[in-house]
Amino acid sequence: MPELPEVETVVRTVAPYLIGRRIIDARFTSKFVTPGNRAALAEKIKGRRIVSVRRRGKFVVIELDQGTLAIHLGMTGNLLASGKATGHTHGYFTLDDGVLLYNDPRQFGRIEWSPGPAKRVAKLGPEPLEITLEEFQKRMKRKSRVKPLLMNQAFIAGIGNIYADESLFNSGIHPLAQASRLSALRVAKLHQAIRDILHEAIEHRGSTISDYRDADGACGGFQLLHKAYGREGEPCVICGTAIRKTLVAQRGTHYCPKCQKR
DNA sequence: CTTAATGTTCCCCA
DNA sequence: TTGGGGAACATTAA
C-alpha cells in the first residue's frame, strides 16, 4: 500500500497526534513485523518521548528522546491515530494522550528500533523530490531496465509499482527501456514526470487501491487519476490505444504500447 | 481452486 | 560487481 505519497500523507496526518507525546506502553504481537524479542522492544521504547515524525523513502521515522523507530508499512500496513485493536493489530502504543495502532494483515511491514539514528534508512538512495537532474542523470547510467531501477530503493527511495508505472507513462518511456540508453532529453522528462506525479499524488493524499488509509482512517484520492496503473484494456488518455499489462520483474506493469517507446 | 495484490530480501545463475 | 529470475514471507478477495 505505501509508496512515497502514501507514507508522506500518513506522516503528515499522524505527526500532530504524536509530537511531544510520551509512550506509556507498547505491545507487539507479530514475529514478522517485529522480529526478535518483542517484549524487549516494548521495554526499550516504554517511557520515551516522541521528538519528531518524518518520512524517508517509504519509512516513517519516529525520533524518540532516546533512539529511533523506523516503521515500514509493507504492502498492507496502516498507522492509525485511533481505533480498537483487531486481529490484524500487531503494534499497539498507549500514549500519555491517545493511542497509536499498527495494523497489517499480511505482516510484510516492519517496526524496528535503533539506539541512534534509524539504521534502516542509511542505505536508501536519494529522495526523488530532492534529487537534482544532474545527479539523476549520473545515476541513470546503469544497464538495468528502467522500471525495476526506479523501484530499487537504493537507487531512489520511495517509488513503488504504482508511481513507477505512472511516471513512465507521463514521460513516454517503455518500462523495459535500458536506463543507460535513454537520451538526455528523455531522462530529463522522466525526472520531471517523477516530480510531477509524486507532488500531485501527495496533493490528493495518495492512492487507495485496497488497504491504504491515512492516520485518521481516510482513503486517498489519487487512484481516480491514474493513467496507466490498473487501467489494463482501457483507452490511453493520449492516443486511445488499449493500455497493456505485462509482467516486469514479477510486478504487474501497465503501459501504453503506442506512447511509451523503448 | 487459482491468481494477484501498493514490498523487500535472499538465493542462484550468467 | 551488476543484473535477471524465482521463491519466500501471510492474508484476502476475486
Present the secondary structure layout:
Layout: H1 4-18, E1 23-28, H2 38-45, E2 50-56, E3 59-64, E4 68-72, E5 78-80, E6 89-95, E7 99-103, E8 110-114, H3 133-139, H4 146-151, H5 161-171, H6 184-203, E9 244-248, E10 251-255
Antiparallel strand pairs: 1-6, 2-3, 3-4, 4-8, 5-7, 6-7, 9-10
Helix pairs in contact: 1-6, 5-6
The structure holds a DNA duplex (14 and 14 nucleotides).
What does this structure look like?
- By secondary structure, the chain is α+β, with helices and mostly antiparallel strands.
- The protein contains 6 helices and 10 strands.
- The strands form 3 sheets. A 4-stranded antiparallel beta sheet has the order 1-6-7-5.
- About 40% of the residues are buried.
- The mean pLDDT is about 95.
- It binds a DNA duplex (14 and 14 nucleotides) through helix 5.
Helical/strand content category: alpha+beta
**Average pLDDT over all residues:** 97
| Count of individual helical segments | 6
Task: Spell the H/E element sequence.
Answer: HEHEEEEEEEHHHHEE
C-alpha-based Rg, rounded: 19 Å
Q: State which percent range the strand residues make up.
A: 15-25%
Q: Major sheet: size, sense and barrel closure?
A: 4 strands, antiparallel
Apparent shape: elongated
Residue share in helices?
25-40%
Distance between the termini: 28 Å
